[in-house]
User: Fold this.
Amino acid sequence: MATINDNYLKLPGSYLFAEIGRRVAAYQQEHPEADIIRLGIGDVTRPLPKACIEAMQQAVAEMGQAETFRGYGPEQGYDFLTRAILAANYEPYGLKFGTDEIFVSDGSKSDCGNIQEIFGRDCRVAITDPVYPVYLDTNVMAGRTGALQQDGHFAGVTYLPCTAENNFAPELPAEHVDMIYLCCPNNPTGTTLSREELHKWVDYARQEDAVILFDAAYAAYITEEDVPRTIYEIPGAAEVAIEFRSFSKTAGFTGTRCGYTIIPKGVTGRAADGSRVPYNRLWNRRHTTKFNGTAYIVQRGAAAIYTEEGRAQVRETIGYYMENARLIREGLAAAGLTAYGGVNAPYIWLKTPDKLSSWDFFDKLLQQLNIVGTPGAGFGPCGEGYFRLTAFGDRENTLRAVERIKKMG
Ligand code: PLP
Assistant:
């Protein structure tokens, strides 16, 4: 008899965006004239940089000629891309990785979701709350947790609350943990961890023989000096940290798909026989077995962000979103609302006024201002009482939304 992976049944339905869609549709049906502005999306809206388009067009032409046609490429990514990534994002910080310590993929959701496969089933997972849901859900699917409890937490997981009270910087866990997911800059809070905070985590991981799974999907949005651009800027991190990066929010690749993961060979875990095994070896085995490489055309497009024109175009797009973020932050402040984030990330995390629940605030914003955002409770129990707005909209809609918010008062 074929059985199922019962762990999947522990997961609640993907309630958040379905419920948002349901409420917006119901409101629109009753108010067909309503001019609804969406500031809830986590997807980009600006087109791909011209440099990427040109590089991809050229790659398409190469694919049409027998002499330059490419079939299967290296599963780990073409050298032209891995070398460009290392030269742009790591070497300027004095960080030297081999091209065999970097794995190009079809985006970082797959990587942060799949990485847990190379860890033992009995590893204890620590996760920030609120959190990008992929880390937790994939560990639930793998059977690394117990059941969902009344308080919204899964049994067997160490949650690290991130709220205004601790400045969105999680405390070290009271118990031993083995896998620590950190997302910096953070989705959904839009906040970051300072060098000192990250130091604390690297030291903890070294002391506890744990591994930090560091999601830096929004690294390109960092503006403040004190925020490390990569976890490997922290001494000792190359022995305890795996870093995930994405071209999605950096360069508009959400629909084009490209990301990468750095697994330094010094990051090791214990095998059943007591020996130390590099996670790099296991991930290489997994990647070459289950993945057949990111499209050549896409990798050419991705590499183009490191050219002079590409860099300038990416800077311009990120500047556009971050100007939206500034407008939203200032609009919220003018309306007397307390907001966090939006300085090193395209997310603004606001405290709901008058102790409204995050869903009640969602309804208020939808009904009174015709603005759609994302209730914080959808990202974890500690997101209750908060609300996420994103800076990924177009300027005109962002400005119109801000005008409405200012009048809310
Ligand atoms: N990590 C975080 C924190 C994200 O917010 C997202 C996308 O929203 C991803 C990873 C996934 O990015 P990708 O498009 O590369 O799969």
